Each structure stands twice: as structure tokens, then as C-alpha cells.
Amino acid sequence: MITLATDFGSPYPAAMKGVIRRETDAEMIDVAHDLPRGDPRAAAFWLRFVLPEFPPAVHCAVVDPGVGTDRAAVAVRAGDHVIVAPDNGLALPPARALAASSGTAASERASADVDVFEVAVDDPASATFHGRDVFAPTAARIHEALEPRRIADSVDATATADALAAMPSLTRTDEHVGLVFPEPAIDDASTAVGEVLVVDDFGNAITNVPGSFVRDGDRVRVNGESVPVGETFASVPRGDRLVTVGSHGYVECDVNDGRGDEAFGLSVGDEARISIER
Amino acid sequence: MITLATDFGSPYPAAMKGVIRRETDAEMIDVAHDLPRGDPRAAAFWLRFVLPEFPPAVHCAVVDPGVGTDRAAVAVRAGDHVIVAPDNGLALPPARALAASSGTAASERASADVDVFEVAVDDPASATFHGRDVFAPTAARIHEALEPRRIADSVDATATADALAAMPSLTRTDEHVGLVFPEPAIDDASTAVGEVLVVDDFGNAITNVPGSFVRDGDRVRVNGESVPVGETFASVPRGDRLVTVGSHGYVECDVNDGRGDEAFGLSVGDEARISIER
Amino acid sequence: MITLATDFGSPYPAAMKGVIRRETDAEMIDVAHDLPRGDPRAAAFWLRFVLPEFPPAVHCAVVDPGVGTDRAAVAVRAGDHVIVAPDNGLALPPARALAASSGTAASERASADVDVFEVAVDDPASATFHGRDVFAPTAARIHEALEPRRIADSVDATATADALAAMPSLTRTDEHVGLVFPEPAIDDASTAVGEVLVVDDFGNAITNVPGSFVRDGDRVRVNGESVPVGETFASVPRGDRLVTVGSHGYVECDVNDGRGDEAFGLSVGDEARISIER
Questions:
Q1: Which of B243, C47, C67, C182 is deepest in the core (most CB within 10 A)?
Q2: Mutation site, A2, A232, A236, A253, interface B, largest B CB count within 10 A
Q3: Distance to chain B for A77, nearest Cα, Å
Q4: Cβ-based contacts of C257 with chain A (< 8 Å)
Q5: Residue C237 above 80 pLDDT?
Q6: Does residue B13 have a cis bond before it (omega within 30 degrees)?
Q7: For the complex shown, is ipTM > 0.90?
Q8: Domain C2-172: which CATH class?
Q9: Global pTM?
Q10: Domain ranges of chain A
């Protein structure tokens, strides 16, 4: 299985699918092609949320504002998953989440860590469409290298790492671009100063403040405005604002049947100061 | 085969696909993920239109403004199809359409009716993402329960009903939320007072007035404004308004190469008074 | 494999998938369902770009402003691909590109040319949804007619042409609607007067001026305004305008991390006068 996630819109991802289908019969599943444009951090947020739901797969993730520069391409192994991506850090947060969720035996070192490989890139046909010319064929080839092991049912993190290490086009590396989500400043037990990481299609403004910071039934101030904390949107009347803990585990600023970003005046990168009223 | 229809936008449906793929190799086909947000009636309209085109399948349909409340989850059998959905009525109109289109022998009672089962729900991981935590795994499990029968080629409505009845997590129920589309008031043979049910991506304003009410070549007044009835958009010049009978069988208010909703000033829920000029 | 490309938005393409799945188990891959509405020329541009990436397939392409009129439906063979489309010319440019890219032996006449077949159309169920009632079932039937040859591994352009010619519903024809992209006027070695063919999702304004007209490092005037020619977006600071040669081989007017159409004031069909400053 190969999943595809890009900020390419339409119809560019179809060219990637054609290229992949020339190399492998692997199932292709779209994760998203409308990831926030040119924002590797937002891509990392969404992939960290979505990819751990999948069984072992090769994930081709291309949000690549540096396309055509000398940034490298990487393949990141995490558990028995592999993420193929530009070396701009977007693969690391989802890789760590995959490693954490797929660890089985505590003794199995490989399953707890991630391996980063640099991809040797042939001169691509274009300077602007590496999704088609670099990342799609790399994902297809890695899938083909891994698949015989999967069919033999011997797949595990170590076997995956070994298969990647045996590919001539991959070289293990410690030099790669990292990406860590900003940590909120927790002033005291009652105030967290975080920021908005992403806004989802519902208009929910998702912050980096961990969900454990609030409790159902609290009231909190979000940048000074008092709203209830609810477990579900329906805990407040339609059109009212609230704070919930989303399925990704973070505090988000919402409206029941409306857009939280507009009602709270919050955009990606804005400060979100959450104070508990107790 | 499992079809997926939600109002989730992107990338939430990908999390559902990951969950399903952990449980089954069933083909997954997207019906839509941009159904009108929080509007089970519009979802019911579209699914009633689309699902009868499919061969027997499990359809996972999630438009769920009540997520996190105590609304139940249901599995509705219709013919040898099953719709998994929140119990807000959205499954009933498409289920009735599936039952009507898949009935074979008049003597086979099961094929003419629908069966509604309540789904026993484990405590979901989230209060806000039952698409991933409740509906996707339920659809996958139902698919797995039905699939051996399909492979044996013995599938029919009765076998499907029996397979569902045998699942411990399903309980047949008569208590469920219904949904009936509003009927237009037909004052006399020449005036129907209906409403706009949905507006499609082309801007066609689709009413609940049955297509049989108008005839090709008629002129009608729509809320007082006189337009021709045409079989095709091209029956009027580009940019002109007309009334057609859409492929769903209802009167719709259109513009050739333009948006009918804007030209007629019609939105979802608005009254549409159609009078025949003869 | 059947690819699907339409301007139908959502959820109409799902009805086509249901119809196809009733007839064949062929894999279905979405190319795009948001092609510029009612614009066969733009559809032809995108399909010419995307389809040659695919291995042999049946491509169902429906951008059909003449739906319901007496325009014909065609199946166009190119190499061992087939495009099923309304007879409005949209299939010809991608078919020529497929023929050029799949030609193997120079002696094999069939691989260099394209064959156009008119599709005999049963009275369709609707006058407005031939995607579902005409093109999807035709694509499915053609796929089924070709597939045994593919499995026998004897597929090539001649075999594909023969299989189509043997289908009772197809009749070879020389009378069909053509479509040729407008050629730019190249006044002299330093000035090309072209037009904007399409604007992509990034806002890149793609012209019909061939990429060979400019060189990396040139400066050019676009409708009088001086900008650099760069190989990649990142060759200019963020927010700056530039001209690049896109992966489709044409000159496009871009902004690094922004929308070229807005910055240059260019829309589809606008004149783009490109002068080299040397």
C-alpha cells in the first residue's frame, strides 16, 4: 500500500499515480492533496494524526516549498512504515508517532527509533514537479523492495530497515532537517500560552496546548474571552463558542455548527493564551 | 466493497480508510466528503441518488451533527446493501431507494423492506471523531461478516439480513429516527409549491417537485418569473435560465453554462412555486 | 484500469463509479473532477499532461457542455490506450500525446496514429447525465473487451485497435470534432505573443509559448513588465514574480510562494506577450 499526501491540489497528483502504477500494483490511497500550501509543519501535524491509523505502508508525502533547490529527498523508516518526503522535516513528527504506535517488543530497538535514509536522485525530468519525477518513483521502488517480505509475512521493523539499507539508492544518514512542534509555555497550572498549529476544514482552530491541560466542565479564557470546555460540540447551543479536546489530543477552539477560527479571530501561528477559570 | 460518504472535508476521511484497511482488504470507494455540512437531509438526498448505482456494498455514511451526544449508531439493510450511519435519519431515504431497486422476486419480503439494527458502540477513543472510532470499524466488521457469503455467491437480501442478525454487536430495532423529504403542495394541475432540497456543484437548484409535473416545451413561472422547460441545458442560449428535470427525477432551476441558484435567487430550503403557463 | 476525469465536482462522479463497478472489477483512478467547467480545451491540456504517465488504460473523460444535444460520443485509440469522451475534441490532444509516447517500432503504423470510433448510444436514462448513462458504461465495456488481451500479454496498439473494431457498438469514423491548441505568434527571435491556456491550483498562469523560447537566466517582459526567468520558484525571493518552464514544457507566469495569475493580472484566454531582454 502507498498513501499519497500533497499540497498539489488537482490534477497533479494523478500524474504521480500514473508513475506509481507503471512500477507497482500497490494499492494507492489518498490522504489529502489540499494540505496547507508550502507549510511542512502543518503537513507534519496532519500526517502525525492520520498515518498511525494505517497498517504498514509506504507513505509518499510532498509539501515542498524548496522544490528545485538542493534540499535532499529522504526515506524515513518508523516501525514497519516508510515515509518518502523532501528533507524539510515534515516526515519526522509522523515518523515518531508511527514508531511509538507500532512498537511491539520493548527489546526491539529498531521499532522504537526511526532511520533516516537519503535518496540518491537521478536528474529529474523537471525542476518543479519532483512529486512526479522523484518522490512517486522512489515510493514505488521502496514498496517493491519491501513487498516480498510482507508477502512472506516476516515483516517487522528490523526487516524493513534491512530492506531499505540494502537498496543502492538509499544511504543512511544522521544529517537531516528536523522539525519539532513549538511547545506551549505553561506559566502555572492555570495558564498556557500556545499557538494555533492548524485550522481544519470545519474551522476548528487547533492549538499546541495538550488536551490534558483542560477538563470537561471547566471554563477557560481564550485570549481573554470566557468560554466553556465541553466534551462535544453539542455541549453548547448551536452557534456558541467552546473549547474541546480534539481527536488529535490538543485543545481546539470551536463553534457548535460554525467556524471557530472566525468566532475566536484565530489564524495559523496566532498566539492562543488559555487560562483556566477556577 | 465499502463506500465512504461524509461532510468531513480533508484529511479526516483518510483516518477512516486507515482504520478500515487494518480490518479488511475490501475495496474502498469515495462517494463524497464534501456533503453539505451538518445536513443529514441533504446527505440523504445525495445518497438516495448515488448508492443505487452500486452493486451490493457496505456504505459508511457520516453526516453527524449530534456526534458525542447519545444518538445511536445504526446499520440499515436494504436489498443486499448495508448503510452504516448515525441514527439521524440520513440512511432511510437511500435505503428505501436501494430496496426498491434491488427487489427481485415479489415474494421475497426481505428485499422489499429495510431492516434497522442498532450498533453496540464500545467507548470510542474520541468524543468528536466517531467516523474513525465508531462508523469505520463497524463498516469494516459488517463487510467481513458478509464477505464469505458474497464469495459463495449465495448473497441475497435474506442472507444479508441473517448475517447481520447473527452479529453480536447488532440488535434489530424498530425505534430509530426517520427522515422523509417534504412533499410539495400541488394546488391544482398547474401549480406546485415545493422547496429547494439541495444545490449541486453546478449551481443547479434541485427542488422536491417531481419531474412528471412539467413537460418538455412547457413554459413555467418559478416564483413568478417565466422560463422555458427544456430537456437539456443546450435547449436555451448560453446564460439563459431554464427548468429541467434532472437525472434524479426532480424539477431543477438551471442556467445554461451558469449557476441557477444565483440567477433564480434560490438557496436550500427556499420555497419554489412552479406554475405551468398553458 | 479505468481513469476518470470530469468537471462534475461532487458527488456525481461516484454514480459513474457505481455503474462501472457493476460491469467490471477494473481498478478506477481519479484524474480530476474539478477540471475547468465546460471547457474542453482546458480538459485537453490537462489530460495531455497527465495521461501519458499512465500504463495502458481506458480513460473516461467527460467535459461536455453539449450534453443532451446530438453531439456524438467517441472512443479514441492511441497506442494501447483508449479515451472515451464526448465528440468535442477534448480527446485528441491527449490521444496524440499518448500515441507519441507509446510508439515502439517505427514500422508499426498503428502506434503512431490514433483511431477514432463513434459510439452507438442507447437511449440514455437522462438527458443531462451522460457521464453516468453513456460514458461510464462505454468505458467499462471497452475495458472488458480489451482485458483478456492484456492478460494474455499480447496487448499492443494493433491488438487494441482490432479489439475496438470488433465491438458492435463502435464504428470507425473520420468525421469527428478536432481540437488544436492555438499557436503563439513568434514575431522574431525575441518576442512571442501567446495566450494563457490554463491557470493551475497554485495560480501559475500557463501559456502556450513553448519552454524552448526562454532560457534560465534570461530576463523577459511579460506584457511589458520585466521579470527574471528561473529554473525553480526558489530562484527568486518569496513573493517575487518570475517566469519558469513548467513540467508540461510551456512558459508559465509564477510567484514564488504566491499566485502568478493575480500578480501578473492574467486569466485564461488573456494575451501573454513575452519579450526577451538581451
A1: C47
A2: A232
A3: 18
A4: 38, 65
A5: yes
A6: no
A7: yes
A8: alpha beta
A9: 0.94
A10: 2-172, 185-277
